[in-house]
């Protein structure tokens, strides 16, 4: 699938050279009602928001998630289903089954492929998965796919999906990070940066880094990662609304969320 002109138009609502927000997945709507409500307020330059029901689509349609997804679509926000690739360890059939439930139950516009492999060895497997997801989505443009590498992958992944998460991590690491040289050959709308633990006092600096490194979609939060319980029990720092949500919306969007 070609992602050039069609993809650029899909994310053009925020205007040329303007950053937009990608929400990697808040907590369940019952646990985070303020977060979900904030996404539908006028003025937020949202590119997409991820729906993660229960580590995936869950075992049955969730009425609260159905309502949240419907409100986002009505507000013109792309809703992406969360698929965990497990760094290439998850069986293809499991991924397709989860994706089909997302499509059937929540009518998602695309997917975030979390923990996506980044090495050359997995290129063919990820390409196969992406091609299958595009068929399931049955959108005129193939739907919107975001590869959640969390680091700079092999350049071959640029031919698989519309966007890639080339940074996901802490502010302490982000402020000293550098973009891979090959990213300069692609427009900012191809790259996503997700950063936690960003202090309000460093928000301007973080925005400058995102622009310098050529990112078009970001999510910054002042929430910090809790490593005390290990991966299975920890709460994602991206599961809550950042304390400066209105501030970051006003700095990168056309209006303030109120």
Q: Would you kindly provide a written description of the structure presented here, covering whatever features stand out?
A:
This protein has 258 residues and is of the alpha/beta class. It has 9 helices and 8 strands. It has an 8-stranded parallel barrel with strand order 1-2-3-4-5-6-7-8, surrounded by 5 helices. It is globular and about 45 Å long. It starts with a helix and ends in a 6-residue tail after the last helix. The model is unreliable at 1-10, 12-16 and 229-233 (pLDDT under 50).
Topology:
Elements: H1 4-10, E1 20-23, H2 33-38, E2 46-51, H3 63-74, E3 78-84, H4 92-106, E4 110-114, H5 123-137, E5 144-148, E6 163-170, H6 171-174, E7 191-196, H7 203-212, E8 217-220, H8 230-233, H9 245-252
Parallel strand pairs: 1-2, 1-8, 2-3, 3-4, 4-5, 5-6, 6-7, 7-8
List its salient traits.
alpha/beta, 17% strand, disordered N terminus, 258 residues, single chain
Tertiary shape: globular
Helix content: 25-40%
What strand line-up does the widest sheet have?
1-2-3-4-5-6-7-8
For the secondary structure, the number of strands is 8
Question: Radius of gyration over alpha carbons?
Answer: 17 Å
Q: Which ranges are low-confidence, i.e. pLDDT below 50, for 5 or more consecutive residues?
A: 1-10, 12-16, 229-233
The SSE order reads HEHEHEHEHEEHEHEHH
Largest β-sheet summary? 8 strands, parallel, barrel
Indicate the mean pLDDT: 88
Distance between the termini: 39 Å
Please report the number of helical segments: 9
Strand fraction band?
15-25%
By secondary-structure content and strand pairing, the structural class works out as alpha/beta
């Amino acid at each position: 699938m070609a992602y050039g002109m069609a993809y650029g138009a899909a994310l053009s609502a925020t205007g040329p050279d303007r950053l937009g927000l990608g929400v990697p997945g808040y907590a369940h709507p019952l646990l985070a009602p303020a977060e979900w409500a904030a996404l539908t307020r006028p003025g937020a330059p949202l590119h997409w928001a991820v729906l993660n029901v229960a580590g995936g689509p869950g075992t049955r349609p969730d009425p609260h998630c159905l309502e949240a997804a419907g409100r986002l679509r009505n507000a013109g926000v792309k809703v992406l289903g969360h698929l965990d690739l497990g760094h290439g360890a998850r069986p293809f059939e499991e991924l397709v089954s989860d994706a089909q439930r997302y499509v059937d139950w929540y009518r998602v516009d695309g997917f975030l492929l979390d923990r996506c492999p980044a090495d050359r060895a997995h290129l063919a497997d990820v390409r196969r998965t992406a091609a299958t997801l595009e068929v399931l989505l049955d959108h005129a443009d193939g739907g919107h796919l975001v590869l959640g590498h969390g680091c700079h992958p092999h350049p071959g992944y640029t031919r698989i999906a519309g966007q890639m998460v080339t940074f996901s991590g802490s502010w302490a690491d982000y402020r000293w990070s550098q973009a891979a040289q090959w990213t300069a050959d692609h427009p900012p709308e191809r790259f996503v940066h997700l950063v936690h633990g960003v202090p309000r006092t460093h928000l301007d600096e973080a925005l400058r880094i995102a622009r310098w490194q050529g990112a078009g979609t970001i999510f910054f939060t002042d929430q910090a990662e809790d490593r005390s319980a290990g991966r299975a029990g920890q709460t994602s720092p991206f599961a809550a609304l950042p304390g400066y949500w209105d501030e970051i919306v006003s700095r990168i969007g056309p209006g303030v969320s109120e």
